[in-house]
Write a structure and sequence with these properties.
alpha/beta; single chain; Rossmann fold; seven-stranded parallel beta sheet; 12 helices; 322 residues
Length: 322
């Protein structure tokens, strides 16, 4: 019987090291079959997942030997943390190991939208040389609006300031006197004010009852017609049909989405629009970040199995520092 069950594509030296100490079963496609997941989880003491495995109350009930869940990443919305806590199962994650990669990716999306890089690339590869159709917008002097001023939000803002951007942020959990935020010389504002003022709106929040559907038709209408919307957090915080309408009607100038409400998503009208960039949830996918993430989670799982304390254990639901 395996000590550790890995239900997604998670590998590397840290997994090999874990396998030298415990019996590790790697089934990268297991997340697709909830019934098979419950059957396999029945025998393991540890479960390691990314964001695709849904660790529900039912899965937890089917795993009486389970003592630790390792989430290879920062988001916890695919794990029923409350049920895990009640069952005495420790949940550990990687709270900051991929933050730099996500912040860099976010800046890449902002630049790609502002300078129309994807369109110019596609046209040039088709043999065209349309310089006038690729006249972009400078970031210098523009205002970046950060929704969610946690670790990733602040790292993104810090990098954007290198381009001469001004900062406004909305986050009801951030203390205005916070040193980490005050060092950015940004301004904490209400969400409606941020949407009205920002030239680029970047979302860095977890999925909660308060943030699900946060950006809808009415809030898109509050944005500038020249504004860009970036979402490198969860797709559920956006109403995709409302976003399609806003992009079609030029309510906003463009959008870039890394996360989607359903992954992989069914094809819809977003794919047909020239003013949207779509990527397959890869903001955290750099060699460096994934090495750090997998190492942190595997080391914590090993500690718990050995009767030691985890370094990054979650107690209840934490405000996600995205």
């Amino acid at each position: 019987m395996p000590d550790v069950l890995i239900s997604e594509n998670i590998s590397g030296p840290a997994v090999d090291a874990l396998g030298s100490k415990f019996n590790v079963e790697q089934l990268p496609e297991l997340w697709k079959d909830p019934k098979a997941l419950m059957a396999r989880a029945n025998h393991c003491r540890a479960l390691i997942v990314r964001n695709q495995t849904q660790v529900t109350r039912e899965v937890l009930a089917a795993a009486p030997r389970l003592i630790v869940i390792g989430r290879a990443g920062i988001g916890l919305d695919n794990i029923d943390v409350e049920s895990a806590s009640k069952a005495g199962v420790i949940v550990t994650y990687a709270p900051e190991q991929n933050t730099i990669s996500v912040a860099e990716f976010c800046i890449g999306l902002i630049l790609s939208l502002a300078r129309m890089i994807p369109q110019a690339n596609c046209e040039t590869k088709r043999g065209q040389w349309n310089r006038q159709s690729s006249v972009g917008t400078e970031l210098y002097g523009k205002t970046l609006g950060i929704i969610g001023a946690g670790k990733i939000g602040c790292l993104t803002a810090k990098r954007a300031q290198g381009f001469g951007m001004k900062l406004v942020a909305y986050d009801p959990f951030v203390d205005p006197d916070s040193v980490s935020f005050s060092e950015l010389n940004g301004e904490l504002v209400e969400l409606e004010d941020l949407l009205a003022r920002a030239d680029v709106v970047s979302c860095h929040v977890p999925v909660t009852p308060q943030t699900r559907g946060l950006i809808d038709r009415n809030r898109l209408k509050r944005m500038k017609k020249s504004a860009f919307l970036i979402n490198t957090s969860r797709g559920e915080i956006l109403h995709e049909t409302d976003l399609v309408d806003a992009l079609k009607n030029q309510t906003i100038a463009g959008a870039a989405l890394d996360g989607r409400a359903s992954e992989p998503p069914a094809a819809n009208e977003l794919e047909k629009l020239s003013n949207v960039i779509l990527t397959p949830h890869i903001a955290a996918f750099t060699h460096e970040a994934q090495t750090r993430v997998v190492r942190a989670v595997c080391e914590d799982v090993s500690r718990v199995l050995e009767g030691k304390c985890a370094k990054n254990a979650v107690t209840g639901w934490l405000h996600e520092q995205q």
